[in-house]
């Protein structure tokens, strides 16, 4: 899948960006990105991800906006990771694309 491949290799495509966790769902993606010494702000990273994956797939994959949440401590990070892991189960979806 184009999106999963891009995300799994995002650190080679956008310097200073790495992936902590993600799950690819049929209608959306849950993703924790880590930006360390990245020359771009989060909005530009998301724009590049959307543009590259849409171009490679040849179809419009994304809605114009995205939801962002700044993770400020380990406790919150743990809760969000757990949410990402359980999201497919909560929606009763069998998933194959999961990364940690």
Task: Give a concise summary.
The chain is 44% helix and 17% strand. It is an alpha+beta fold and 100 residues long.
What is the topological layout?
Blueprint lengths: L1 H7 L1 H4 L3 E8 L4 E7 L6 H16 L16 H17 L7 E2 L1
Antiparallel strand pairs: 1-2, 1-3
Helix pairs in contact: 1-3
InterPro entries: RAYT_transposase, Transposase_17, Transposase_17_sf
Protein name: Transposase IS200-like domain-containing protein
GO molecular function: sequence-specific DNA binding; transposase activity
Task: Give an account of the 3D structure.
InterPro entries: RAYT_transposase, Transposase_17, Transposase_17_sf. GO terms for molecular function: sequence-specific DNA binding; transposase activity. This is Transposase IS200-like domain-containing protein. With 100 residues, the chain is of the alpha+beta class. The chain has one domain: Alpha-Beta Plaits. It has four helices and three strands. Strands 2-1-3 form a three-stranded antiparallel β-sheet. A hairpin with a 4-residue loop joins β1 and β2. α1 packs across α3. It is globular and about 35 Å long. It starts with a helix and ends with a strand. The model has no long low-confidence stretch (mean pLDDT 89).
């Amino acid at each position: 899948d184009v999106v999963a491949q891009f995300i799994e290799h995002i650190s080679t495509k956008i310097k200073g960006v790495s992936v902590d966790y993600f799950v690819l769902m049929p209608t959306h993606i849950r993703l924790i990105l880590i930006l360390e010494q990245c020359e771009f702000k989060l909005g530009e990273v998301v724009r590049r991800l959307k543009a590259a994956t849409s171009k490679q797939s040849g179809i419009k994959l994304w809605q114009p906006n995205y939801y962002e949440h700044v993770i400020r401590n380990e406790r919150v990070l743990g809760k969000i990771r757990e949410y990402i892991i359980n999201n497919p189960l909560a929606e009763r979806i069998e998933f194959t694309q999961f990364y940690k």
